[in-house]
Amino acid sequence: MSLLRLKQQILRLLKWSQKYTKTDMVYLAHGSFWMILRQVATSLIAFGMAIAFANLLPKETYGAYKYVLSTAILLAITTMSGINTSLTRSVAKGYEGSMMQALYSRVRWGVLGSLLALGIVLYYDIQGSTMLSMAFLIVMVFLPFKSSFSVYQSFWQGKQRFDFFSKLGIFQALLATIPLFIALFLTDDLFLIILVYFCAQTFASALLFFFTLHRRSNDEQDPEAISFGKHLSLSGMLFAIANNCTDIILWHLLGPVPVAVYAFATRPPQELRRVFTEAFPIALPKFAQRSKEEIQRTLLKKIAKLYLAIVPCVIGYILVAPFIFQLFFPAYLEAVRYSQIFSLTILFAPLSLFGIVFQALGRTREMYVISILSPILLIAALLIFVPLYGLMGAVIALLAEIAIQSIVVITLFKRM
């Protein structure tokens, strides 16, 4: 059978299946293939880095590394990451000139994060912690730029060119990871590792931004791109704080080693969860073109079908987790039971589609409700359960937050 004939038969099969799935299966298969390929490739790269960190870096140093990065992500909230999602929406409507506008806006707001980082530098300098002071000095310098250049990804998503989005994402992951991998073999100095990380990440992202910039077909700007992006950023600010404060709370209450253990406990389930959710953003341009009533009528049934794949994966991970840690992360065997329990969060992955619907339809009220209520509950749960139960308290708090968020999201979806 020729390759062309096979392709035609697959195309006919996908079109035939549309009457049962009530979904554009040709669009989904094309987009999902590239998105899942990207996630699998980047997960393998991340897995390789995790093995290197587990076997080449002391737990105390890795815990400090995670603490600095989590704090940096927290400070990067000021760069208005919601502008990326807004840019996807704008490009999908034909406004490709908003890309440069998005970068300028994110960098400008990122300077505020650098000023906050300067405050942390001075704090640790006064405390006599030269290692952390120097590490946050690097954060201060790179913060406005590292995340901001990622707007190029939103351009390809908005164009529905998921092949470019995925290939460039894999290339960026490799370009940013190789220098860090080499650094781990040469040193365990926190300052040098943090410096290599931020230099490599910023260079890779900037390179692909300018590559993408020259591939715009027009210079038209969406007048709503930045304002809507700010709404998205503000609505997600508390969630971003809650999502990244776990390492910080663990650092201050339990110390660097628990931070390292928690990182290895949660990383495999998070990567497995992303295998399912990575393809979800391809739905944003489609949702933006459909009515609220049509989405409400069909989405719940589609989500229910996703559990046919998700439930076996969760059960499988719980069974094989001890063998994975024993083989690849022998220094972190105490993380196994936390990882098994944390894998239950994967069951809530399909519900993130509701958030994409709210973004696509510009439902700012719903986004604000979700992003304010759930993070407050998570932070409160962490502060209550971590002192009482240590790492297990952090896992319990996260599961409770995701469950509550899911109930709220479903309710808002039905009532919108």
Describe the structure.
This protein has 18 helices and no strands. It has helices at 3-21, 25-56, 59-75, 82-92, 98-126, 130-146, 151-158, 162-186, 190-213, 225-235, 237-254, 256-277, 283-288, 292-328, 336-342, 352-360, 364-389, 391-415. It is globular.
Question: Nutshell version of this structure?
Answer:
The chain has 416 residues and is mostly helical. 82% of the residues lie in helices and 0% in strands. The protein is globular, with a radius of gyration of 21 Å.
Number of helices: 18
Order of helices and strands: HHHHHHHHHHHHHHHHHH
Helical content class: over 70%
- Unreliable runs: 281-285
Total beta strand runs: 0
Task: Indicate the mean pLDDT.
Answer: 82
| Helix/strand/pairing category | mainly alpha
> What would you call the shape?
globular
What does the main sheet amount to? none
Strand content: under 5%
What radius of gyration results from the CA coordinates?
Answer: 21 Å
For the record, give the distance between the C-alpha atoms at the N and C termini, rounded to a whole number.
50 Å
For the structure shown, list the relevant keywords.
18 helices, 416 residues, single chain, globular
Topology:
Layout: H1 3-21, H2 25-56, H3 59-75, H4 82-92, H5 98-126, H6 130-146, H7 151-158, H8 162-186, H9 190-213, H10 225-235, H11 237-254, H12 256-277, H13 283-288, H14 292-328, H15 336-342, H16 352-360, H17 364-389, H18 391-415
